[in-house]
Structure to design on (101 residues):
């Protein structure tokens, strides 16, 4: 049985580390990215089973990533997270296809 690969995209290294440790202890494999562009480039080599992404990052935001991924890979669930939620971000995340916010 092939393990499920979960991509973690967040510019905060400590957040990526905590999520990675939690997923690893639960038997998942993860791949970490500090920005959306690196994750988008990885699609040339590999495809995740799930993406967990911060909404606010330097460069392309998590919402930009969400729009690009759901357009080309609508079967991949994406969880968007943020420390600074506002109503418009929540609406946009679900409008663009977020699995969870």
């Amino acid at each position: 049985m092939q393990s499920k690969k979960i991509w973690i995209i967040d510019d905060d290294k400590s957040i990526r580390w905590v999520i990675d440790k939690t997923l690893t202890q639960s038997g998942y494999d993860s791949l970490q990215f500090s920005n959306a562009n690196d994750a988008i480039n990885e699609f040339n080599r590999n495809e995740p089973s799930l993406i967990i992404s911060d909404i606010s990052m330097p460069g392309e935001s998590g919402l930009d990533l969400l729009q690009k991924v759901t357009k080309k890979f609508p079967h991949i669930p994406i969880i968007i997270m943020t420390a600074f939620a506002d109503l418009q971000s929540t609406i946009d995340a679900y409008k663009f296809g977020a699995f969870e916010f």
In short: DSSP finds four helices and four strands in the chain. The longest strand covers residues 5-9.
